[in-house]
Design a protein that fits this description.
It contains nine helices and 22 strands. The protein is an alpha/beta fold.
């Protein structure tokens, strides 16, 4: 039996699920997280001034119950309330800012059934974290170096918010981080093999080039016009919009941007949100001009998510899977995170699938 704990790097969905699985088998775990919060690319936000408006996802949002069994079962087992994604009514298509907005009614069954969590995906993250022993998760702790010891085990160096560095001994390490962050930010001793490091760098970080915005209104007024809230736009700045309303009285729309990271950074948040509001008015009329709240998150500017290469927009869905086909490095450092999943890479399901594989690998090593 391992005398030292398993250290999990990253308190996103994948890292926390791996920790919960190991703890349930009596295995001691420490979860190290560079951010000041848990969740990773799960981020559900509410207004400090008006919490009654609800909490909205600015990171991962949906899952698909017909295709994604792990998350579907986990949400059910934890008893978390869900919201079926609203898809009734016409979708809008915008080719240019000056041209007419086209309205299309899709045939029944054309939109795959998807589900959101009431209160945001953060409710899932919080429920998993609550199952861990108190003090398991250490925030503001950024892993800088990982060294394999000749006698077995691993030594980790982690930076603290006050600039100090602490040394941690581990029986094994699970890296539940974007592969590019692993390759660029952690020094390995001995060095990672070239092929493995190249494979890590070759996996684009899901959402790292993206930004999301949510506009909250006093009611989902577009539904009264027979609209689903779904939009495809070539005019921008949002290229894709969906209904994000909760089961409360308020309405909400959220969108993904079509403009690249550098352009968003050059424009700045104030100008971006002005352009977003202009677009929503174009699409949905004057009622869209006065949101009760606007939430914005640019993942491309998030140091714990994105590296420089992630600023290049993805044109196709990335090929994910194990880095260079390796479940682990020297059987002591095991790869997790959604970018290492064999299926559903980039999705919440992929994060959970990778966690289950990593936890199984640790248990096998024991």
């Amino acid at each position: 039996m391992m005398k030292q704990p398993v250290v999990i790097v990253g308190a996103g969905l994948s890292g926390l699920h791996a920790a919960a699985l190991l703890v349930s088998k009596g295995i001691s775990c420490r979860v190290l997280e560079a951010r000041s919060r848990i969740g990773g690319r799960v981020l559900s936000m509410e207004s400090n001034d008006r919490p009654e408006l609800g909490r909205y996802d600015l990171g991962s949002t949906w899952y698909w119950p017909n295709h994604e069994p792990i998350i579907t079962k986990l949400v059910k087992d934890l008893g978390l309330p869900t919201i079926e994604q609203y898809a009734a009514g016409a979708i809008l298509f915008e080719q240019s800012q000056s041209g007419p907005v086209q309205r299309h009614v899709l045939p029944d069954g054309a939109v795959e059934r998807s589900v959101r969590l009431d209160g945001g995906v953060q409710t899932l993250v919080d429920a998993i974290a609550a199952s861990l022993p108190e003090g398991s998760v250490e925030l503001n702790t950024e892993v800088k170096a990982i060294q394999l010891e000749k006698a077995g085990g691993v030594t980790i160096e982690a930076g603290q918010i006050d600039g100090s560095v602490k040394t941690i001994s581990a029986g094994a390490v699970i890296l539940a981080l974007p592969p590019r962050i692993v390759a660029e930010r952690i020094a390995f001793s001995p060095a990672l093999p070239d092929g493995l490091r190249a494979s890590l760098k070759d996996k684009p970080t899901w959402m790292a080039g993206q930004a999301k915005v949510v506009a909250v209104y006093d009611r989902p007024f577009w539904r009264e016009e027979g609209l689903s809230g779904q939009v495809t736009s070539w005019a921008g700045p949002l290229q894709e919009i969906h209904d994000a309303s909760s089961d409360n009285e308020y309405g909400a729309l959220f969108g993904f941007f079509g403009i690249p990271t550098k352009m968003r950074q050059d424009l700045g948040e104030e100008q971006i949100l002005r352009l977003v509001t202009d677009q929503l008015i174009r699409l949905f009329g004057p009622s869209a001009g006065n949101p009760l709240a606007l939430f914005y998150k640019d993942w491309g500017s998030d140091q714990a998510t994105a590296v420089d290469e992630d600023a290049i927009p993805l044109t196709t869905f990335p090929e994910y899977g194990l880095p260079a086909g390796n479940i682990s490095w020297e059987k002591s450092v095991i790869f997790a995170g959604t970018e290492t999943a064999s299926g559903h890479g980039g999705h919440l399901e992929g994060a959970l699938q990778a966690a289950e594989r990593a936890a199984a690998e640790v248990m096998k090593a024991l």
